[in-house]
Amino acid sequence: MAATNEEKRTRTNTFALAPKAEWKKVCLIELLDSAAAFVNIVTYHRRQAYFDDDQTRSDVWNAITKTEIRNRFQPVLGRAITDKMLDKCDEQWDAFFEQLDDYSDGEREDKPGVPGYWKDDGKRVLKACIRNDAYTVEWGEHSRIELALGSELKEKYGIPLNQRIRVPIKGNPQYDGHGGRLELVYDRSTESFTARQPVTFLHDTTRATDSSDEGCVAAVDVGANNFVAVTTTQGHQRVFHARPLFDRFHHYTERISELQSQLPEQTDSSRLVEKLYAKRTRQRNHAQDALVRHLARLFSGWGVEAVYVGKLDDVREKHWSATVNEKTDLFWAHGRFRRRMQTVLEGECGVSVEEQSEAGTSSQCPRCDEGTHVSRTGDVFQCGGCGFEGHSDVVGSENFLQSVVDGDVDFTGERPMARPVDSGQNGPERGHRKVPRLEWDDHCWRQRGHATKEEPTNRSTHEGNLASESGTA
Question: Any signal peptide, and if so, which residues (predicted)?
Fold first, then answer.
């Protein structure tokens, strides 16, 4: 019997602001002009520090303090918009430094440009990012938006301190739900205001009950030796191999510990230690982000509508050790991975993502349900009851999927092309011998020696390029 469920979707509403009173139009323009000035001032100070050879990356971030910029603009923009504009500036510089590091490491061909000013033809680009608690939208006979302002603007335009500016809006919202960060832009050529509002909404869906359902469900088992193993209700399976990545991560960890032990007393860090920390994190994040994009392409091609991601809390409690802790918390960064999955799959692909416990999923045979006479050695799972032998993380993903959907799942569906990429490491796997294993080559996830639709030959590391590839297996 089908089970009713709710899933989250994120879409964008676009609508126009239509202030009838001239003073409201001027007030909004002044708000957006101040937001653009905010960005340009932060950008100026950070650019000056960046182009000064005597300055470090930390000096760039601290070129203008957050307290200083808040005190200057909060009276006009208000606290919520000021904080959101700070986030916007930090996002631009975060992206720049990440791309710059990729260029320095040879992972990017073109050198990225330093963040520029919000200007066009010598004039400021009138734009602001508004936090979701700094505005409200009401649709109806008299549709309107209410925006928070700073005390100086309110006083200047006669708005009571406990009220917001109210502006009529035009348009038909396609999506109704909880709004996210609003982007408001004024176009000088058309003298018009445009708002873009990301909306997260809930709707009823029918969870897949067996492999014959039209909707496809995927289970993503989070591992340590392998990043993830994936199984769907249509029989698709993949393993993403992570040992070389972890070995490199662990090497950086040991080197950092060695350097920290040599530091003078009461000194916590050094420029070299910070550089190694940043490089270790950057390499991990790059592989993880590419994995999420790869999964998004696969799920799109397979028609996946819902994804369940393994929750590691119970696993850590049962199998805690220093090595497991390093793999699951530091190297794997499970919380970041889950957030990236939600951002990309829910926000861009309309696929729901839910976290469920995967404890015990690798300790039971997926063929005979035997749990007493099973053993796991590395990647090899063996059942003494029925003689089944397979990949332990694939076993985990199969059992995990069975635990989150109703009815039996047929695991004899897709069994394409690939042999294990490294049989010496992965061992004999009679049950999962044809499940594709993918490895990270510092550019993308691919089967060793293969260039397939899902592992394209384009080796660009730019996330936009990865997202635009449409091929799927």
Answer: none
